[in-house]
Amino acid sequence: MTYRIIAVSGGTGDPSNSTALAERILAAAREQLRLGGVDAEVEVIELRPLAHDLVDMTLTGIASEALETAFDRIRTSHGLVVAAQPAETRSVFDDLDPEAVTPFDQLLGA
Predict the structure, then answer these.
(1) What are phi and psi of 80, to 5 degrees?
(2) Could you tell me the maximum CA-CA distance found in the chain, to the nearest angstrom?
(3) How many CB atoms lie within 10 A of CB 7?
(4) Span 79-96, pLDDT tens digits
(5) What is the pLDDT of residues 19-46, one digit of tens each?
(6) DSSP 48
(7) In this predicted structure, what is the pLDDT of residue 106?
(8) Which helix (H) or strand (E) holds 41?
(9) Is the pLDDT at 110 greater than 80, yes or no?
(10) Residue 95 has what pLDDT?
């Protein structure tokens, strides 16, 4: 089985310190799993390119295709890393079913 770990980065810079942090955490997690004989696929979802979609969803209640894809990636992952200030990621997790993220390990990197 291959585990999928998703990191959500709320950084606004380019390059983003939050994304760099997320990538370091993912690399360490992947290495620890590899040492235990487990394959891991890792992915960073950056919120910066989704900012307009997040605002539109807040105003209309309708998620864009890009946001739905991000939500699906989060819902179907085995682990979640959040590397951002809480306000930067709140709109994503406000609209994501809490039950979707409770079955797996989560790590907050701030």
Answers:
(1) -135, 130
(2) 46
(3) 27
(4) 888 887 666 566 666 666
(5) 999 999 999 999 999 999 999 999 999 9
(6) G
(7) 56
(8) strand 39-46
(9) no
(10) 62
CA distance 56 to 108: 26
pLDDT reported for residue 15: 80
CA dihedral 52, 94, 24, 19 (to 10 degrees): 10
What is the side-by-side strand order in the sheet with 105-109?
39-46, 2-9, 79-83, 105-109
2: Cβ–Cβ under 8 A, 6 or more apart, which residues?
Answer: 38, 39, 40, 41
Both structure tokens of 8: 């959500």
Tokens 């394959």, residue? 39
- The alpha-helical segments, DSSP class H, found in the chain are 17-35, 51-60, 65-75, 86-94, 98-101
pTM: 0.80
Within 8 A by CB and 6+ apart from 29, the residues are 5, 40, 42, 79, 81, 107
What is the DSSP-derived secondary structure letter of residue 110? -
Instruction: Give the whole-angstrom CA distance, residue 90 versus residue 5.
Output: 20
CA distance 84 to 54: 15
